[in-house]
UniProtKB/TrEMBL annotation:
It holds the Pfam family ABC_tran. Residues 336-358 are annotated as: Disordered. This is Glycine betaine/L-proline ABC transporter ATP-binding protein. SMART domains: AAA. It comes from the Bacteria. One of its GO terms (molecular function) is ATP binding.
Length: 358
């Protein structure tokens, strides 16, 4: 069962929202409804988020991504549709039950750090536990552990204004982790940071995810951030999800011209991997000559110099040294947009045709 499911969600602001939903379902255009006094912010959004997945929702300003996020934990009530969390319909809960779910099972990390200036770092990190009614000794212990997880050991007694922006955001992340919530909702959480600190926070999140395996919904307008963090990505435009897939699927097979134009400046070499470039070997012992090999997760940026050193298609092997496929150099160049690079010749090693058994 998915951890989280959005089922045909609509959110319309303004007059006669249910009538507007009906018109949208009949094919009405968003712009026409806005002229009539209704503003469709989210239109027929459906997706699932699996347990332990980082699911990224991305789009430009006004695309509806933050509105969609706020429906996922009940901060905004959908005009139509359902949100299922752990099999429970959040849209059917009474307000008191919904508050309990939000305080115990769902945590949110905001773009702006939302720290209390009159509380120290430790008290800020423990605030979610205080809301839950956790005894002081236990909440301080759990908050301390969370601060250590995000790299702020030794800063517990500091004040928020003594911290850099990146460190303040780490406190916000620690506050979310301290509650041990099953679901983290992160709304443009790194957007206010400068590029170097932002990348450092991305590294921090990925490192934490490898050990904690949280279910995360992450909102961003930055495509490179989405590609780096997301196990899957939903691209939004004008309130609708226009494509949903892995970073590689979106790069290799954009759903429409809008997505294609959106991704044109992405550094493909750091997103696409050997798994997306490999082709089946034509015989089981292909590329079994003892040359350098790569793993399925090797990026094309790391793979390209290997193709220059190895005079035949590079073997892709798993952790058990099982051959999964081979990557011809021309395949890498094609995926990177260079169709003219020649295969390096070698008299002492098999040719590409010989190595693959073609």
């Amino acid at each position: 069962m998915p951890s989280l499911q959005a089922d045909h969600l609509y959110k319309v602001f303004g007059r006669r929202p249910l009538d507007a939903v009906h018109e949208l379902q009949q094919g009405a255009e968003r712009a026409a409804l806005r002229d009539g006094g209704s503003t469709p912010a989210v239109i027929d959004a459906s997706f699932t988020v699996e347990e332990g997945e980082i699911f990224v929702i991305m789009g430009l300003s006004g695309s509806g991504k933050s509105t969609l996020l706020r429906m996922l934990n009940g901060l905004l009530e959908p005009t139509c549709g359902r949100v299922l969390f752990g099999g429970q319909d959040l849209t059917a809960l009474a307000p008191s039950e919904l508050r309990r779910v939000r305080s115990h099972q769902i945590s949110m990390v905001f773009q702006h750090f939302a720290l209390f200036p009159h509380h120290g770092v430790l008290e800020n990190a423990a605030y979610g536990l205080e809301v839950q009614g956790v005894p002081r000794e236990e909440r301080l212990r759990r908050a301390t552990e969370a601060l250590h997880l995000v790299g702020l050991k030794g800063w517990e007694k500091s004040w928020p204004d003594e911290l850099s922006g990146g460190m303040q955001q780490r406190v916000g992340l620690a506050r979310a982790l301290a509650t041990d919530a099953e679901l983290l909702l992160m709304d443009e959480s790194f957007s206010a940071l400068d590029p170097l600190i932002r990348r450092d926070m991305q590294d921090q999140l990925l490192e934490l995810q490898r050990s904690l395996h949280k279910t995360i919904v992450f909102i961003t307008h930055d495509l490179n951030e989405a590609m780096r963090l997301g196990d899957r990505i939903a691209v939004m435009r004008d309130g609708r999800i226009v494509q949903l897939g892995t970073a590689e699927q979106i790069l290799v097979e954009p759903a429409n011209d809008y997505v294609a134009s959106f991704i044109q400046d992405v550094d493909r070499s750091r997103v696409l991997t050997a798994a997306s470039a490999m082709v089946p070997p034509h015989r089981p012992d292909a590329a079994g000559c003892g040359c350098e090999t790569v793993t399925p997760n090797t990026t094309l940026a790391e793979l390209l110099p290997v193709t220059a050193r190895v005079p035949h298609p590079v073997a892709v092997r798993d952790d058990g040294d099982r051959l999964l496929g081979v990557v011809p150099r021309q395949r890498v160049l094609t995926l990177l947009g260079d169709h003219d690079g020649p295969q390096t010749p070698c008299d002492a090693r098999p040719t590409e045709k010989e190595a693959t058994g073609a």
